């Protein structure tokens, strides 16, 4: 079996489609090598080896060792150098890389192959002793850290001490003598921490490093990252062993990272940072301040030209914005990595539109792969009102690392952020800089503020990926973890104080600023037009107020899939009438109370229908258990008794009677409408009178009346008749009629099972997947929080079924009911109106079942539109 795939010299055994096996890095190195880009050669050990390693007590599968040696031999031949040679050694990097990118989560070792003898060989051969020892000290540090688990800080401290002794500030100012000294001190750190001498055998070094990368796959921080980002189903990480190229040989060398377009706003410009005479992680490590890529043009014009050429080639080849690592060795450019760059929502949409304009990709292609549903979600993020902020309120300016406004209480560490978030607090995580250990806290925070680090720092990259507001490298402020505060010299902010940050402008403001709704640009509309041209499943919204309906319509909703009527009973006057209705002893009392509710309901429907003019509106009849409308505080009960002029004791008795043991399974939904048909009558009348009223004004209204919680076709028939009866009355009185539909929610498992029978009577189905999930699992929605988290940690559930539709179980019911329903009624309209209507994977599932529409909250509408289009492609 093949475990090792070589690349280099203009060809490769792998390609970009092999990410699962070779990881993103390995697959792209192979691809780049095949298309003739300047890639240092090497080979990739497949992720299968990692899986085997982690499952079999750190052993390798049969045959890997031999293939590894072959790989090394091939590499030696290509490079004309020998691994482990003491005169002119071949050095390699050992790099991790899984199928899904996990920035900074796993580890890399550079300059592997050096030892006390070959460092001298390298020095002689390159005539650059400083360089050779610089490589060696880096290698000891990285090997010690990655392989032996020595805290990187221990090396840093030794380095800092030496710099202090020598009175220099930068690593680059250390001379040969000092670097040799540093190597000795590093070896001492290594010896002290591990009890071993630093290993001198390159082959042993190589094996240790490879195993360390395999092991890092199951490190705590890697696991946390995968959990938060829902990365599942991967074999493990691949390992890339690659010939070193050196950005640290002198002033004609450099290393850097760049994006082919601006990842914050999408502008078509080279965007990135570099350092002269540096290696690998120096750019992101924040040791020296990296320089803007534009300056490379002046420093090394030829290499800059070449880099631009490479980035264009890569964009054309991948048809996507690329995130690239490069190194310049004595004027020669090498590409070390490329991947599709993470970007903000604004940037994603702009890049998609620009790339189509530039002819780089088709509209379809752009919709399919250049914008993710989550990107649109980001566009809907709130912003700080610009005019609301005066310059002197700003206590710090940093880099605009990830756009969006965030307001919260300051916390200084990640555990605290998670803890406060768990209590429902909004927090801003404030750190000098973040590291992969902080991802839990970063995820819990509303926004992130760091005082150190660039646009490609850990905080910036992670925040952009999540669409979380972030201000990075805000060096106006000094953070003191000990006193739990930060200050800009004038203003001091303590833990627990409110701050507001604007990640698009990079500003920090003391206090709690109001946030405002985002507005969409032209690119957004262009892009969404393409989405809608492709898409054929409709997207509706769940809305029960005219403002929500209007907003959703702006977001592209094609109707209302669920207008809940219960919220309409909560106004000051209405709740009185409602309560009166509920505690009525007789039908006539009840009717009297309902009569006073009718005008309110009718006006509500007029407003909603008007906002959705020309589009279908599904109104659900009263659903929750009645006692939800009754007061529970003593004072309220007393005043209600007064109001209704009944003895307090009677009212209390009535309330007690209404209490249920399992209200969710109790007297609710159509059970109310059947026991008290006058409720259904009043609601139907309000709906249809509103429709007639608008029709008389020349407006098109398409009402769909939905009966909730149906479990038997008899229930439905009963309610259907009530509605039809009222409709006939209303139309006769008005001398005008409107078309209306009567259908049902499918939210009780029994209804799904007898869907064919129900469909004989019902004109449409709408899956209420919240209740359907609740009843299929038997998990109370309101109590499941107590155990769902543990279920997911234990792997008993993969996702929260209330967020992501359980395709296997609940989905089977949806599928069966759709099929049965359509068998009984060919043109049955079927939609879904649960929380899942806005979740991209659930939208895809609904599309594949042939549903006519999904319905979701207004803010999810653009997301659902894109998800529906992508489901089709
Ligand atoms: P990460 O996934 O954390 O980015 P990488 O494997 O990409 O880790 O490597 C970290 C750094 O080391 C990068 O800046 C990369 O460019 C550099 N690097 C990796 N391999 C080599 C090599 N063979 N020659 C020179 N630099 C390298
Ligand atoms: Mg790394
Ligand atoms: Mg990298």
From TrEMBL:
- Its protein name is Pyruvate, phosphate dikinase
Q: Which residues form a coiled coil?
A: 293-324
> What family does this belong to?
Belongs to the PEP-utilizing enzyme family.
Q: Where does Mg(2+) bind?
A: 747, 771
Q: Which residues cross the membrane?
A: none
General function of this protein: Catalyzes the reversible phosphorylation of pyruvate and phosphate.
Which residues are the active-site ones?
458, 833
Q: Which UniProt keywords apply?
A: ATP-binding, Coiled coil, Kinase, Magnesium, Metal-binding, Nucleotide-binding, Pyruvate, Transferase
- Catalytic activity, EC: 2.7.9.1
Q: Taxonomically, which superkingdom?
A: Bacteria
Residues in PEP-utilising enzyme C-terminal domain copies = 524-872
InterPro entries (alphabetical): ATP_grasp_subdomain_1 (IPR013815), PEP-util_enz_mobile_dom (IPR008279), PEP_util_AS (IPR018274), PEP_util_C (IPR000121), PEP_util_CS (IPR023151), Phosphohistidine_dom_sf (IPR036637), PPDK_AMP/ATP-bd (IPR002192), Pyruvate_phosphate_dikinase (IPR010121)
Question: Which residue numbers delimit the Pyruvate phosphate dikinase AMP/ATP-binding domain?
Answer: 20-56, 65-294, 304-358
Q: Which organism is it from?
A: Halalkalibaculum roseum
What's an example of a GO molecular-function annotation for this chain? pyruvate, phosphate dikinase activity
Which residues does the UniProt record annotate as the domain PEP-utilising enzyme mobile? 425-506
Q: Which residues bind substrate?
A: 564, 620, 747, 768-771
The cofactor required is: Mg(2+)
Q: What class of enzyme is it?
A: transferase
- Tell me the PANTHER family matching this sequence: PHOSPHOENOLPYRUVATE DIKINASE-RELATED, PYRUVATE, PHOSPHATE DIKINASE 1, CHLOROPLASTIC
Catalytic reactions on record: pyruvate + phosphate + ATP = phosphoenolpyruvate + AMP + diphosphate + H(+)
Which first-to-last residue range defines the signal peptide? none
Q: Looking at the keywords, is Amino-acid biosynthesis present? A: no
In its keyword annotation, does this UniProt entry include ATP-binding?
Answer: yes
Kindly give the Gene3D superfamilies that the UniProt entry links to this protein. Answer: 1.20.80.30, ATP-grasp fold, A domain, ATP-grasp fold, B domain, Phosphoenolpyruvate-binding domains, Phosphohistidine domain, Pyruvate Phosphate Dikinase, domain 2
Q: NCBIfam families annotated for this entry?
A: PRK05878.1, pyru_phos_dikin
